[in-house]
Structures are given as structure tokens and as C-alpha cells.
Design goal:
The mean pLDDT is about 95. By secondary structure, the chain is mostly helical. The radius of gyration is 21 Å and the shape is globular. Strand 1, helix 1 and strand 2 form a beta-alpha-beta unit. Bound molecules: adenosine monophosphate and tryptophan. The site of adenosine monophosphate has 17 residues, from helix 1.
């Protein structure tokens, strides 16, 4: 079944569980503002996902506002797109329960993000962390969203969302009730790697702050972090094939290309044969150029938390209005009394 009968609708979410970094920006945020001009968009702050691991209550609220500020600073316009906190819209948790009964444990057992996050001590992980990707499917399908801009690490979760949608449609004999949502992961910023190790992803939870560029980093910090970024003994490559054994250099080229919106070939061509002493400062300048306005805007938005809260609560009302008739249809389809 294709999505042809469904009106395109975009949904994505970011967890309020730590500082936003360059990976979040290039993998997700940068696409949010672009898509709002083409489609109806909902951008959620997924606080219910965040609490699958411990969050300090005093910090959670502020981090929720910080994600909102990052959305706004990167160009998401609340008049065009809906931005809201997940916990304010009940449809997420309700549909997640129904989907817990549709999804098979065998499917959830295959999720690599759970294995990575739970580590060796899976028995001590919360049940919420285990069922996290089922809630993610509910987020998307509560709005019958068709497109989901995310980084590459979310591809497997999107496949699970499609499987859940398809099984619901089959089980209840409602073909095409839910669309099969597609991940939008194109572009060189879909998988930004750590600046300290080109084989592990840039992440909020990496203990080394030098591994990532945070959206709140000052220009000096950005320059310092790129200067310290791991490279190798060589010079800048002349061809794509020269990069297969050079993950760190590969990553820096991707970052440059995503920030400058030039192809990797163009970037490789420009720096061929140059030393890192030349490339790194050029990359740092570019990053400062692109990120400094966002950092400035973020702190401006954060200075008025009442305004942020107002935007988020109004967004939640709009989101609830879209989801409610869909959830009402789901209840009826399942066969609950009074529907
Ligand atoms: P999270 O911070 O895990 O809630 O992720 C928010 C969004 O950023 C999701 O769409 C992720 O796929 C994306 N993302 C997170 N880390 C990276 C990364 N290192 N490279 C590209 N995208 C990322
Ligand atoms: N799991 C996503 C992440 O860690 C966040 C998320 C939750 C999400 N619900 C979503 C992303 C729905 C896209 C759509 O990055």
C-alpha cells in the first residue's frame, strides 16, 4: 500500500534530554524549517521519550524550552508549523498502548537503539525504554503523518512504525487506514560522527564535550573543538575512494558539505592536497558563520520563557485537534464500547 491516498503531513520529534548538537541540527532541525513551506508540519518535543531514562524534574522543563528555542532559532515559524510538548497531547500515550498490543515482542527485540542504550544491564532498563519505539510509532501515526525528517539512526524505528501501521491495517481489515510513514534522511548531515572518533555518532550522551559541537557553544569553543578534532597523518584527499579508511576526515568533509550546502565532490575538489592546518580553520569559520546566528537567537528566545510556554501550549491545542478524530476512529475500529 502506498501513501498516495494520504495527504502529506510531516512529523518529527527531539528529546529534551540534553544540549542540542550539530548532529541534531544537520540531521533534523535544518530540514524542519524547509519543510514547513511545503507541507503541514508538526514538530514535537518528546518529553515522554526523554523520561525513559531518569530526568531531573527541575531540569526537564527548562530543557523542553531549550528544544523549543532551538526549533524557533533554526527558522521554524509557529504560524506555519505546530510545535508542542508531547506530554500535553494525550493521543500519544493512548495510541501507544494500542500499538503495544499490535507490535510483536520479536520486532521490538531487534531494535538496536535499545541494545545500545540499555547496554549490558538490559534487565535494569525501564520498560518504557524497551517500548520507546512503539511510542514513536504512535507519535507519527496519531497524525497519520507520511514523512518524518530524522537522522539515519532513526531508520530502524521508522521501519518498525511502518510494520505497526501495516499490521493494524491488516488485523482490523482497514486497508490504508494508517499511511506507511517514510523517513526523510537524505543529505550529508544525516549521520554526523563524533569529533573524537569517526566511527561513533555525535551524541548528547558522549561523556567528552569535545566530541560534539553544541548549539550553545561560543565561537571560540567551536574553533577550539575543530582544532582538536581527530584526523590522521595524511593530507586532504582528492577522491571519494581515498576516504574509505579515513572515517574522521570523511566526517569533517560531510560536515563541511552539509553546512555549506555544496556537494562532497565540490568540497573535496577545493581542499585536495591541502593540510588540516588549512582545512580545519576553514571548517570552523563556516560552522561559526552558520551556527552563531542560531545561538544568538536561541538565547533571545530563552530570555522570554513565558512566550515559549505560550507558543507550546497553543501548539498542543492545535495538535490535539488534529489527533482527536483520528484516535476516535481508532477506538471505533478496535471495537470499544461507546464508539
Ligand atoms: P535525539 O537527540 O536523539 O532526540 O535526536 C533528535 C534528532 O536528531 C533525530 O532526528 C536524530 O536522528 C537526529 N540526530 C541525532 N544525532 C545525530 C547525528 N549524530 N547525526 C545526524 N542526526 C542526528
Ligand atoms: N527517537 C527519536 C530520537 O531519538 C525522537 C522521536 C520520538 C521521534 N518520536 C519521534 C522522531 C517521532 C521522529 C518522529 O531522535
Amino acid at each position: 500500500m502506498t501513501n498516495t491516498t494520504h495527504t502529506p503531513r510531516v512529523f518529527s520529534g527531539v528529546q529534551p534530554s540534553g544540549a542540542m548538537h550539530l548532529g541534531n541540527y544537520l540531521g533534523a532541525l535544518k530540514k524542519f524549517a524547509v519543510l514547513q513551506h511545503k507541507h503541514e508540519c508538526l514538530y514535537c518535543i518528546v518529553d515522554l521519550h526523554a523520561i525513559t531514562v531518569w530526568q531531573d524534574p527541575a531540569v526537564l522543563k527548562q530543557q523542553t524550552r531549550e528544544i523549543a528555542a532551538a526549533y524557533l532559532a533554526s527558522g521554524v515559524d509557529p504560524k506555519k508549523a505546530i510545535i508542542y510538548p508531547q506530554s500535553r497531547v494525550k493521543a500519544h500515550t493512548e495510541l501507544a498502548w494500542y500499538f503495544n498490543c499490535v507490535a510483536r515482542t520479536g520486532w521490538v527485540n531487534r531494535m538496536t537503539q535499545f541494545k545500545d542504550k540499555a547496554g549490558k544491564n538490559a534487565e535494569r532498563a525501564s520498560v518504557g525504554l524497551y517500548t520507546y519505539p512503539v511510542l514513536q510509532a504512535a507519535d507519527i501515526l496519531a497524525f497519520k503523518a507520511t514523512h518524518v525528517p530524522v537522522g539515519e539512526d532513526q531508520k530502524q524505528h521508522l521501519e518498525l512504525s511502518r510494520d505497526i501501521a501495516q499490521k493494524f491495517n491488516n488485523d482490523f481489515n482497514v486497508p490504508d487506514f494508517f499511511p506507511l510513514p517514510e523517513a526523510l534522511t537524505q543529505g550529508p548531515g544525516a549521520r554526523v560522527m563524533s569529533l573524537r572518533d569517526g566511527t561513533s555518532k555525535m551524541s548528547k550522551s558522549d561523556p567528552s564535550d569535545n566530541s560534539r559541537i553544541n548549539l550553545t557553544d561560543s565561537a571560540e569553543m567551536i574553533v577550539k573543538k575543530f582544532k582538536k578534532a581527530k584526523t590522521d597523518m595524511g593530507v586532504m584527499p582528492g577522491h571519494e575512494e581515498d576516504l574509505s579508511q579515513r572515517p574522521e576526515v570523511d566526517n569533517l568533509i560531510s560536515i563541511y558539505s552539509a553546512l555549506s550546502e555544496e556537494s562532497r565532490e565540490t568540497v573535496i575538489g577545493r581542499f585536495e592536497g591541502k593540510g588540516f592546518g588549512e582545512f580545519k580553520p576553514a571548517l570552523a569559520d563556516l560552522a561559526v558563520d552558520k551556527l552563531a546566528p542560531i545561538t544568538t537567537l536561541m538565547s533571545r528566545y530563552l530570555a522570554d520563557s513565558e512566550e515559549i510556554d505560550r507558543i507550546l501550549l497553543a501548539g498542543a491545542d492545535k495538535a490535539a485537534q488534529i489527533a482527536e478524530p483520528i484516535i476516535a476512529d481508532v477506538r471505533k475500529t478496535i471495537g470499544f464500547l461507546g464508539t
